[in-house]
Automatic annotation (TrEMBL):
<dbReference type="Pfam" id="PF05869">
    <property type="entry name" value="Dam"/>
</dbReference>
<dbReference type="InterPro" id="IPR008593">
    <property type="entry name" value="Dam_MeTrfase"/>
</dbReference>
<dbReference type="GO" id="GO:0003677">
    <property type="term" value="F:DNA binding"/>
</dbReference>
<keyword id="KW-0808">Transferase</keyword>
<dbReference type="InterPro" id="IPR002052">
    <property type="entry name" value="DNA_methylase_N6_adenine_CS"/>
</dbReference>
<dbReference type="GO" id="GO:0009007">
    <property type="term" value="F:site-specific DNA-methyltransferase (adenine-specific) activity"/>
</dbReference>
<feature type="region of interest" description="Disordered">
    <location>
        <begin position="1"/>
        <end position="21"/>
    </location>
</feature>
<dbReference type="GO" id="GO:0009307">
    <property type="term" value="P:DNA restriction-modification system"/>
</dbReference>
<protein>
    <submittedName>
        <fullName>Phage N-6-adenine-methyltransferase</fullName>
    </submittedName>
</protein>
<keyword id="KW-0489">Methyltransferase</keyword>
<dbReference type="GO" id="GO:0032259">
    <property type="term" value="P:methylation"/>
</dbReference>
<feature type="compositionally biased region" description="Basic residues">
    <location>
        <begin position="1"/>
        <end position="10"/>
    </location>
</feature>
Length: 195
């Protein structure tokens, strides 16, 4: 007999408390080490046990209001806020973002599928770290993806040794097309190709 699922949410995605005192979670250092070095982390925690880039902007400096430079590492706040960070990174065209692999969202369609050079869908679920450098007791609760903006950053994904599935969107741009929902009344079934 199936047991009812515990409805208590526990994570960044579901495994850890979504109502934490601190919403700052750090990228696992092995990810940074595999992909770095980076010139700028515009959404860095105020306090951190390791550097993610040569220069850091925290929420005090508000990295969204600053000019970005060089190669950017962007692990933005998750949720609705990730859109504005991806938008700015896409405009900057030099960096890598780490976000949840929520491929069905408008944000993912507009700023990842449409603007990125390529992606690495990470195998398994990441465990993030507290600002004290302590690994979270549970994983993030969802799949993660590294999104590269330009060829050089995409090559860093390939060479990183991070396990997962690589997609070169630049090669696939001519095949990728966003399809709008079909209005069933707008076409005749005779227009469809038979199977």
């Amino acid at each position: 007999m199936l047991e009812p699922r515990n409805k208590k949410k526990n994570g960044i995605g579901s495994h850890q408390s979504s109502k934490m005192k601190n919403d700052e979670w750090l990228t696992p250092p092995e990810i940074i080490n595999a992909l770095g070095p980076f010139d700028l982390d515009p959404c860095s925690p105020i306090n951190r046990p390791w550097d993610t880039a040569s220069t850091h902007f925290s929420k005090v400096e508000n990295g969204l209001t600053k000019d970005w430079f060089g190669r950017v590492w962007c692990n933005p706040p998750y949720g609705d806020q990730s859109k504005v960070w991806l938008e700015k990174l896409a405009a900057h065209k030099n960096g890598i973002a780490l976000i949840f692999a929520r491929t069905e969202t408008t944000t993912f369609f507009d700023w990842a599928w449409e603007k990125a050079y390529g992606m690495l869908f990470i195998r398994g679920r990441l465990s993030f770290y507290t600002v004290e450098g302590i690994k979270a007791k549970a994983n993030s609760g969802g799949p993660s993806v590294l999104i590269a903006f330009n060829e050089s950053n995409f090559n860093s994904l390939i060479k990183s040794g991070i396990k997962g599935q690589i997609i070169n969107l630049n090669l696939n741009k001519k095949y990728l097309k966003t399809i709008e929902p079909i209005n069933e009344e707008s076409f005749e079934t005779s227009e469809l190709n038979p199977i």
